[in-house]
């Protein structure tokens, strides 16, 4: 169960990094205007898939916890 919790945390962290969730507004604005449109799409896609994997991992950990 702990494996899935750590796995979920890692994926949520990856998602936050790719979406730019750990930056200030000024940094995020600067990054937005300095990136190309294709790069933003790619980052958003990676962030969405890693967030989904993190949520699924947390759900599996919760199910394992309930079954024990």
TrEMBL record:
Family annotation (InterPro entries): DUF5316 (IPR035167)
Positions of transmembrane segments: 6-26, 46-67
Keywords from the named record: Membrane, Transmembrane, Transmembrane helix
Source domain of life: Bacteria
Protein name: Uncharacterized protein
Organism the protein comes from: Paenibacillus donghaensis
Classification of source organism: Bacteria, Bacillati, Bacillota, Bacilli, Bacillales
